[in-house]
Amino acid sequence: MMEHIGDISAISATVDRNFIEDPGLHRTLLGDGLATSLSALIGGPANTTYGENTSVLALSRVYDPKVIRLAAIYAVILSFIPKMAEVISSLPSAIIGGISFILYGMISAVGVRNVVENKVDRHVLVTWLLQRLSWFVVLAFPMDLHLPSQAHILLLQDLHLLQL
Questions:
Q1: Backbone angles phi, psi at 17, to 5 degrees
Q2: 20 to 30 A from 93, CA-CA: which of 31, 85, 122, 159?
């Protein structure tokens, strides 16, 4: 639920509309709950709002719900075409990594913008940024680099020490 509220707040700030008031947080939460229930009925996973959507909105500057629905329909249709899966899986990991880096960078930028616009205390902001940076660095390193798992743990501990 907290992720949903955060994502709705971030999307509201990105498109300059208050979705918490109109259509209302109760409606967006109800929609999220109904979608998860429908997914469970057919054996699917739980649904959630995604921060990636906020970065796509920020990058494309296309805020029209009709366009977003159409893109979702195209994505569902394309997911049933095996050739599309082959095309996507043939992309080099460096390309996927670069796209992911831009996407998650935009999510971070939207989050930082929200913190700055709400005039959060600087010390809280620094702590928050260092925590997010430490998780990003640890999670961003692919495990296929064959780094010992201790390297990830030490890196995480070192970044947490910087917060002190």
A1: -135, 145
A2: 159
Distance from first CA to last CA of the chain, Å, rounded?
Answer: 30
Structure tokens at 159: 């970044």
Provide DSSP, 74-121.
Answer: HHHHHHT-HHHHHHHHHS-HHHHHHHHHHHHHHHHHHHHHHHHHTT--
CA angle 15, 47, 55 (to 5 degrees): 30
For residues 32-41, give the mean pLDDT: 88
pTM for the model stands at 0.55
* pLDDT tens for each residue of 98-135: 888 887 777 777 777 777 777 767 677 677 777 777 66
Helices (H) and strands (E) counted in the chain, each on its own, are 8, 0
**pLDDT greater than 50 at residue 164:** no
Residue-wise burial string across 79-109, b where 16 or more C-beta atoms lie within 10 A, e elsewhere: eeeeeeeeeeeeeeeeeeeeeeeeebebbee
